[in-house]
Amino acid sequence: MSEARLPRRAFLATGLSAALPLKASAAPTAPAGKPLTVLHLTDIHIRPEHDAPKRCTAILRDILKRHPEIGLVVNTGDSIYAADYGNITRERMLEQWKVWDDTVMTALKRLPIVHAIGNHDPWWAGPKDDEMHGIPYVCKRLGIEQPYSSSRQGAWEVITLENCRGSLGDEQQKWLFEKIAALPEKTPVLLASHLPLFSLAGDYDGGNMSGAKAVIDKLAARKAPVLALSGHIHIQSSESLWNIKFHCNGALSGSWWEPGDAGDGSYKRTPAGYALLRLWPDGRSECVYLPVPA
Ligand SMILES: [Fe+2]
Ligand SMILES: [Fe+2]
Hints:
Elements: E1 12-13, E2 36-41, H1 52-66, E3 70-75, H2 90-107, E4 113-115, H3 134-142, E5 149-153, E6 156-160, H4 170-182, E7 189-192, H5 200-204, H6 212-222, E8 226-230, E9 237-241, E10 244-248, E11 273-279, E12 285-291
Parallel strand pairs: 2-3, 3-4, 6-7, 7-8, 8-10
Antiparallel strand pairs: 1-12, 2-11, 5-6, 9-10, 11-12
Helix pairs in contact: 1-2
This protein binds fe (ii) ion (2 copies).
One fe (ii) ion is lined by residues 78, 118-120, 194, 232.
C-alpha cells in the first residue's frame, strides 16, 4: 500500500478536479468562489487511559490553530473507546461519554459539527428498555435528533448515514433515495458514514458497508460530484469511481491512543491523523490527510 512508503510527516492528497466528471482534453481551471473548509475527524475513541484526554485536547487545539479557516466539523464515529462489548458496565460507558464532553466537545464548541455513529458508540449490555441502551442514547450524547440526517452547508448537501451495524436497512435506504431524488440536479453531496461505502482500506482490513452498490448506483446516476467520507478501518485510502470520490480516513486515535505495533501510535502504516477538505461551490473538492501535530 502506498502509505507504507510515506514518511511520518508526509500527507496524502487528492487532485482538485477528481470529483468532477473527467474530460480527457479539458485544461484545469481555477475553482470558482470561496471554499468551505471541513475538518474530518473519525475514530477518536476517547478514553481515560493513556493520557488520552490531555493529548486529545492538545491535538484539537493545535489543529484549530493551524487551520483557522475551518467552518464545519464532520465526525464519522467511534467517538468513544468502546461501549458495545457485552462486559461494558453502565459506569464504564458513562465514564467515556464524560471524557468525550470534557475534551472533544469542549475543544470544538465554537464550530458547527455533524456526527455519524460508530459501531463502538452504542451500549448494548444494558436492558433493552433502559434509556441508555443502543442508538437513541448515542444520539442524545452527540446532540443529534436522528441517527441519519441531512443539512445544507453552503452549496453542498451534507448527509450523515447510520451504518454502524453493517448496512443501512430498508427504512434508511428509502429515506436516502428520496432525499437524493429531491436534490437539485447540480447540487454536490458530502456523504458521511462510519463504515466506508467502498474503500481499499476496508477491503484490506475490516470490511466496507454491505449493500453499498445500490447507493453508489443511485449517486452515480445524478452525475453531480459526491464525496463519500468514512472511517472505521483506521487506515487511509482514497478512490474514485465516476463522479464519486471515496475517502476512508485514518483515526485521530491511531492505535486507540496506544503505541501500536510500530510504537508511534500509527495503525498499519497510517499515522494518527485528521483530514482537511475544501469544498468549492461548483462541486470541486480537495481532501488532504495530515498526521496529528506532534
Ligand atoms: Fe474505530
Ligand atoms: Fe468502527
